[in-house]
Structure formats: structure tokens, C-alpha cells
């Protein structure tokens, strides 16, 4: 085991980023034209990075497995993006955003990276406004803010429930400008299947044209992986079905350490699954917890009445309801962080109070908000004695203006009107805080290979606060990577064009060909989805919202068996040299089957509870925090970075010890 060097700059944390930029090497504009950079993934992190690097003068090759960068999964983000602008004059600051993010991540993030994230956050908003992103505005024209879980201020900028889409269109327009100028060469419907390393440096990739099936070699002086997270290792998640871990896993197997794979976020406000046939889950924005109150019935007979349809939720009076988040966490109420809210919902449902037929749902109720907003609106309009119906109609209009598209989406999926009856929600796998280990410059343990956005581990610790994924993606792409990559590339200006005829490219292409050819020729009896579902069930049952040593050991054994069976009995129809979605899925699931085992190994190794990683053996046994997650700062205050050795069960652990010089380490409390 080695100790990793994060390359964190010295000096006061508030000056680190400024001093670092002042002292790193630069590439002059004329030399940038001589340098190629590959960007894999064109969501918020990849799209903003590609646009920024091309604008600076580098030659960029961008790869997306979708038919357009506009379809990157960043488009699905709903609720907003954080920035410490203090528009609401409620005491926000760069330090408070930094503090909330480190605390929200349960003190398992690198302080220097998180402070930089908070520091550049305000610039992100200015950049996006300049691009024309239509953020919500107040009556006077100023940008509006709302609050998200885990904080006591309003710092979240939003565009209704479509924030990810609007931000992605901003990055896409910036990319398109560079594509039009020939500075970015765009490869749609191309999937990276291998990293090429020459003399210890990342020098290119092997990609598959997903339309023709042809394998292609692409060279560059640096490679940026911005391919998102690995939540689909659970099969059922809020991610798009195409979201995968292959790019990250391929560079891991070439020498990039994989950090904290067990840190996965369970989002508390998802539409409950409706049956075993379901292939993905739908997220309801966390912004709904601003105004929605979460509850279950207090009495078991009411639970049974609601499940059977004999009782309607609105028939229960307030004193017959258990607003359990408000009861357990009075300081934050419904706005506790996602991991806390998710575990609380699971606890109520495990105790038998789940309100749908499967017993896996709680209510998210807007009746109080509709009444409150309706009375306020009536007063503004001079209606001093409005009827209940008038108050309700006015309140509904306010809620519609704030959350209308989310309510519409919920009704389309469930056929229930959330204006009239509470939404049903339940936790689901959403985001992954773990990912490729990177240093302060976002470089992996492979020189010249970088990771940005959700693909890296660096900013969110063990639990991501709401509205910070978009913040990190754009911070990395617009304001961090364009500076730090120059420090490395300043030594590459005399390298010249890199030939794709080098033996390393030939060997990497053969490796990909052999892997795909093997999958095609197994000619088994079970579909790819069969194995993916089997893996997902083990992951959810044994490595889901709560984990214990016995279950994690069992998960490792079961996943190995599934993987062995996969390579003996998977059926991949069609051929390699054609459009073949089943082959694409098979290659991705093969990677998930290895990642899933490392995930369980990492969770077993970390015998503490922190953030989204909840070990049943590590809970507070008494006092005010009884039953809450118990962190172990003596033994586990480190980043676990795993080195590939040929078998996930034999992965080698490296540690980056975490230092906390600016924030006091203490057990989280939201009570």
C-alpha cells in the first residue's frame, strides 16, 4: 500500500487556487494549435471542457455514445445548481458553501478541492447567464434562488425542473461554436472501449463506431474522461439505461486508481417501482422538499386502509400523520441531506408503514404549501375573505409556476394528480460519489489522463448535497481543467503528432476486438439483461441502503458466480461489424460485473458509517444521535483508492489520508 499525493497547494485554503494558477506552467496560444486533446463524454463536464479547451486553441476530439451531445444524461438533472452569491441576503458565503459541502459529504472529501468548487461557483452562474441559460427570476428581474437539503440558506439557481437541460444546451451551444470553426471534431455514436498508454502516458483511445461496428484508433497528447457515474451497476436507478461505467473502468484497468466505489447516493424522492418488469426509475426533484411535507400514517390501521383503497390520504387529519423528518430532525425538517432522508424513509417502511401495495412508499404532500401560498396570493390581490376553493386555486397556480413540469411528469407516470393527492416517493440509486481518483489538477494516476465531473471522486465525499452535481461538472469543465491541463501539456509542445500505428495502439485494438469477439461467440442461452438484473438484485439487497459484513461477503461471492455464468452463457445476437445494441450492453455489463465486486469489497473494508455508506455495525447507540450513522475518524479518515491487479477480489488498496485544517471534524447533526 502506498500513500497518494493529492498535490494540494500549500498555504491558506482561500489562497490556494489563486496561487496555484499563478505558478503552474502555461502553453502559449501558438503552441496550443499543435496539441490534441480527447474528451470522452459530452455532458456538462465533458461539454464544457471541450468547449473551453477548443476556445483556448487546443485541437479537441469529443466522443459521445449518443446521437447528439444534447442527449447526455446531464439533461435529466432537475432541481438546480448551487452558487455562493448570497442573493437572498441570508448569510451565504464561499466558506459556508464549502462547509456545507464538506459536512454534507460526512467529512470524507478533500478540503482543497471543495473550497475551490465553492470559490468558482459564482463564476459558473455568470458564465451560464451570458450563454442565455433561462434561470428563474424574481418579480424584479433578479435571479431567483431556492433551498436544497442539508443547508440553511437559499443558494440554488434553477430553471423550473429543467435545470440540467438548460445548462447542457448552454454548454452544447459553446461546443457547437467550436465545431463550426473546426476546433472540435465531434464523434457522435462512438463509444470508448480502451485507453492507449505509450511509455507510461495516456496517448489515445480505441473507440467503436456504434453504427457500423468498426473499431477506430484515435491519438492525443492528453485524454479527459467525463463519462458520468456508475449507478447502473444496480440495474434499477434514476440513470438513463445507456449510462455506464465502461470508460472509467477501462482506464482503471490500465492503471488509474478507482476511489471509494462504495460511496453511492440513494435519492429520497423517486417514484416507487411498479413491478419487476421495470427497467429504470424516475426521479422527482429534491426541490420538491422545499414545499412538500413527507409523512406516513401514525396508525397501522390507517396504513392498511390506504393500501386497500378504503381510505384516501387526504382523509387523515394532521394529528393522524407522522411527519417523521420534522419529528426527528427539527432544525432541518424535510430538508435534511439525501442520505438522512433516504434512511429515514426506509426505516418507516421497514417498520410496516409504507403506503403503497409493496410497502415501499411514503407521502410527499403539498396541501399545506398550496394553502399557504394561496392565502398569501389572495392577500396580495386584495381578497381578504377568500373562500377555501379560491385559496386552493390560487395556491395551485403558485405551485404550478414553481414545479409544474414535475407535477405533470408525476401524473403522466402514475395517473395520480399530485395537486389533489400526495405524491408517493421512495429512495432509489441516483448518483455516485466514488469514481476515478484524481489529484488537485484532476489528473488520474496515469500521466496525461484526466477525469472530470461525476467520473471522478473528488468533491462530494460520502454523500452529495443536492444541486452540487451540476456545479462540479461545470466547475471542472469551465474553470479548473482548462488551467490545470496546461501544466502537463506544456511539456508536450515538442512531442508532435502521435501515430496510431504504434504497437500500443495495435495491441489495444486487438484487445478490444478479442473481447467483443468472445462475447459474440459465447452463444449462450440467457440475455444480457438477465445478468444485469441478477447483478442489480444482489447489489440492492446486499450493498444498498444498509450494509453489513455478512451481506457484503455474500455479495462478493454471488457476483463472482454471476460473472462466471455470464462468460459461459450470455447470448449476444448479431455480429460485431454492424449496429448491435446487445453487444454494447454486453460489454458494459461485463465491466459492471467487475465493478460490482470491487464496490462490495470497498464497502466491506470500510467498517464505519458515513454518508450514503451505512454499515449496520456502526450506529450511535445512545444519546440524541441514537440510531444515526457513526463515523470512525480514527481508522477511516482516508480516501480508499484501489489499484487493478487482474481480479477485483485482489485489488490493492492505496490510501490518501484526509486532513481537515479549516473545518472541525465532528459527527453530523441535523436535529
Automatic annotation (TrEMBL):
<feature type="domain" description="Fumarate reductase/succinate dehydrogenase flavoprotein-like C-terminal">
    <location>
        <begin position="532"/>
        <end position="670"/>
    </location>
</feature>
<feature type="domain" description="FAD-dependent oxidoreductase 2 FAD-binding">
    <location>
        <begin position="36"/>
        <end position="470"/>
    </location>
</feature>
<dbReference type="InterPro" id="IPR003953">
    <property type="entry name" value="FAD-dep_OxRdtase_2_FAD-bd"/>
</dbReference>
<protein>
    <recommendedName>
        <fullName>succinate dehydrogenase</fullName>
        <ecNumber>1.3.5.1</ecNumber>
    </recommendedName>
</protein>
<keyword id="KW-0274">FAD</keyword>
<dbReference type="InterPro" id="IPR030664">
    <property type="entry name" value="SdhA/FrdA/AprA"/>
</dbReference>
<dbReference type="GO" id="GO:0008177">
    <property type="term" value="F:succinate dehydrogenase (quinone) activity"/>
</dbReference>
<keyword id="KW-0560">Oxidoreductase</keyword>
<dbReference type="GO" id="GO:0005886">
    <property type="term" value="C:plasma membrane"/>
</dbReference>
<keyword id="KW-0285">Flavoprotein</keyword>
<keyword id="KW-0813">Transport</keyword>
<dbReference type="InterPro" id="IPR015939">
    <property type="entry name" value="Fum_Rdtase/Succ_DH_flav-like_C"/>
</dbReference>
<dbReference type="Pfam" id="PF02910">
    <property type="entry name" value="Succ_DH_flav_C"/>
</dbReference>
<feature type="active site" description="Proton acceptor">
    <location>
        <position position="338"/>
    </location>
</feature>
<dbReference type="Pfam" id="PF00890">
    <property type="entry name" value="FAD_binding_2"/>
</dbReference>
<dbReference type="InterPro" id="IPR027477">
    <property type="entry name" value="Succ_DH/fumarate_Rdtase_cat_sf"/>
</dbReference>
<dbReference type="GO" id="GO:0009061">
    <property type="term" value="P:anaerobic respiration"/>
</dbReference>
<keyword id="KW-1003">Cell membrane</keyword>
<comment type="similarity">
    <text>Belongs to the FAD-dependent oxidoreductase 2 family. FRD/SDH subfamily.</text>
</comment>
<dbReference type="InterPro" id="IPR011280">
    <property type="entry name" value="Succ_DH/Fum_Rdt_flav_su"/>
</dbReference>
<dbReference type="GO" id="GO:0009055">
    <property type="term" value="F:electron transfer activity"/>
</dbReference>
<dbReference type="InterPro" id="IPR036188">
    <property type="entry name" value="FAD/NAD-bd_sf"/>
</dbReference>
<dbReference type="GO" id="GO:0050660">
    <property type="term" value="F:flavin adenine dinucleotide binding"/>
</dbReference>
<keyword id="KW-0249">Electron transport</keyword>
<keyword id="KW-0472">Membrane</keyword>
<dbReference type="InterPro" id="IPR037099">
    <property type="entry name" value="Fum_R/Succ_DH_flav-like_C_sf"/>
</dbReference>
Amino acid at each position: 500500500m502506498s500513500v497518494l499525493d493529492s498535490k494540494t497547494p500549500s498555504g491558506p485554503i482561500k489562497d490556494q487556487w489563486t496561487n496555484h494558477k499563478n505558478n503552474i506552467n502555461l502553453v502559449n496560444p501558438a503552441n496550443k494549435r499543435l496539441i490534441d486533446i480527447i474528451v470522452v463524454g459530452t455532458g456538462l463536464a465533458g461539454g464544457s471542457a471541450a468547449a473551453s479547451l477548443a476556445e483556448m486553441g487546443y485541437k479537441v476530439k469529443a466522443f459521445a455514445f449518443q446521437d447528439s451531445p444534447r442527449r447526455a444524461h446531464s439533461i435529466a438533472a432537475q432541481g438546480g445548481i448551487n452558487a455562493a452569491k448570497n442573493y437572498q441576503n441570508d448569510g451565504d458565503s464561499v466558506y459556508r458553501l464549502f462547509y456545507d459541502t464538506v459536512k454534507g459529504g460526512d467529512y470524507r472529501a478533500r478540503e482543497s478541492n471543495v473550497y475551490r468548487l465553492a470559490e468558482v461557483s459564482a463564476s459558473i452562474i455568470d458564465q451560464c447567464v451570458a450563454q442565455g441559460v433561462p434561470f428563474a427570476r424574481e418579480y424584479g428581474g433578479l435571479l431567483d434562488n431556492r433551498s436544497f437539503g442539508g443547508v440553511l440558506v437559499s443558494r440554488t439557481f434553477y430553471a423550473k425542473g429543467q435545470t440540467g437541460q438548460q445548462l447542457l444546451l448552454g454548454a452544447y451551444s459553446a461546443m457547437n461554436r467550436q465545431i463550426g470553426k473546426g476546433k472540435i471534431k465531434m464523434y457522435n455514436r462512438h463509444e470508448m472501449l480502451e485507453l492507449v498508454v505509450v511509455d507510461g502516458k495516456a496517448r489515445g483511445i480505441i473507440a467503436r463506431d456504434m453504427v457500423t461496428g468498426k473499431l477506430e484508433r484515435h491519438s492525443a497528447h492528453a485524454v479527459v474522461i467525463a463519462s458520468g457515474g456508475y449507478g447502473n451497476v444496480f440495474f434499477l436507478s434514476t440513470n438513463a439505461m445507456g449510462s455506464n461505467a465502461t470508460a472509467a473502468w477501462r482506464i482503471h484497468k490500465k492503471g488509474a486508481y478507482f476511489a471509494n466505489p462504495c460511496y453511492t447516493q440513494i435519492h429520497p424522492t423517486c417514484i416507487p417501482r411498479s413491478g419487476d418488469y421495470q427497467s429504470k426509475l424516475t426521479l422527482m426533484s429534491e426541490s420538491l422538499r422545499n414545499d412538500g411535507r413527507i409523512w406516513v400514517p401514525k396508525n397501522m390501521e390507517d396504513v392498511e386502509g390506504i393500501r386497500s383503497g378504503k381510505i384516501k390520504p387526504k382523509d387523515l387529519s394532521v394529528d393522524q400523520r407522522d411527519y417523521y423528518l420534522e419529528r426527528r430532525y427539527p432544525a432541518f425538517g424535510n430538508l435534511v441531506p439525501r442520505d438522512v432522508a433516504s434512511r429515514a424513509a426506509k426505516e418507516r417502511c421497514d417498520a410496516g408503514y409504507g403506503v403503497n401495495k409493496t410497502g415501499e412508499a411514503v407521502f410527499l404532500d403539498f396541501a399545506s404549501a398550496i394553502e399557504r401560498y394561496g392565502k398569501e396570493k389572495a392577500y396580495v390581490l386584495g381578497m381578504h375573505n377568500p373562500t377555501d376553493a379560491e385559496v386552493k386555486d390560487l395556491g395551485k397556480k403558485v405551485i404550478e409556476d414553481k414545479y409544474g413540469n414535475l407535477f405533470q411528469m408525476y401524473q403522466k407516470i402514475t395517473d395520480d394528480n399530485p395537486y389533489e393527492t400526495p405524491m408517493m416517493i421512495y429512495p432509489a440509486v441516483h448518483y455516485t460519489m466514488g469514481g476515478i481518483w484524481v489529484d488537485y489538477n484532476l489528473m488520474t494516476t496515469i500521466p496525461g489522463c484526466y477525469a472530470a465531473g461525476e467520473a471522478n471522486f473528488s468533491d462530494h465525499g460520502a454523500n452529495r448535497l443536492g444541486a452540487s452535481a451540476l456545479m462540479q461538472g461545470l466547475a471542472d469543465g469551465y474553470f479548473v481543467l482548462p488551467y490545470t491541463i496546461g501544466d502537463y501539456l506544456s511539456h508536450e509542445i515538442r512531442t508532435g503528432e502521435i501515430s496510431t500505428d504504434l504497437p500500443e495502439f495495435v495491441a489495444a485494438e486487438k484487445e478490444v476486438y478479442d473481447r467483443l469477439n468472445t462475447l459474440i461467440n459465447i452463444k449462450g442461452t440467457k440475455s444480457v439483461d438477465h445478468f444485469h438484473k441478477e447483478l442489480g438484485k444482489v447489489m440492492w439487497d446486499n450493498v444498498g441502503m444498509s450494509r453489513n459484513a455478512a451481506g457484503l461477503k455474500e455479495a462478493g461471492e454471488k457476483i463472482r458466480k454471476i460473472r462466471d455464468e455470464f462468460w459461459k452463457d450470455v447470448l449476444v445476437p448479431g455480429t460485431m461489424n454492424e449496429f448491435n445494441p446487445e453487444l454494447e450492453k454486453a460489454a458494459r455489463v461485463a465491466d459492471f460485473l467487475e465493478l460490482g465486486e470491487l464496490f462490495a469489497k470497498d464497502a466491506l473494508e470500510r467498517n464505519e458509517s458515513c454518508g450514503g455508506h451505512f454499515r449496520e455495525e456502526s450506529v450511535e447507540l445512545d444519546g440524541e444521535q441514537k440510531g444515526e450513522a457513526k463515523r470512525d475518524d480514527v481508522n477511516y479518515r482516508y480516501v480508499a483508492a484501489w489499484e487493478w491487479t487482474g481480479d477485483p477480489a485482489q485489488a490493492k488498496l492505496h490510501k490518501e489520508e484526509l486532513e481537515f485544517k479549516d473545518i472541525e471534524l465532528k459527527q453530523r447533526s441535523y436535529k
